[in-house]
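Write out structure tokens for Peptidase S1 domain-containing protein.
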Amino acid sequence: MRTVEDGSNQYAGALISPIHVLISSSCMSRDIRWATISLHFSNGTQDGERIKVVAMLTHPKYKYYSNDFMVLELEKPSTFKPVALAAADNSGIETGDEKCSKMAMQ
């Protein structure tokens, strides 16, 4: 995330839909105006995408150490694939203990 289009990246986030980025609410202290999608260097300008941020939606109960996330809305859809999110019922989620048990049994 950047304050100016050709500036350095300030924060990292996750693309959760073609027009939404999940990021920490503590980033509100910066004037984030641009999302950089799939850029490989902090000041990258030649690969990936730079898309203008049009809205910042913060959790209504945000406190510094709780509910510390917000969603950025992008001006246009990214062409990159968003990260996979869990289903609403948490089906398909393996906790660390389950994963370790399965690995030990193999």
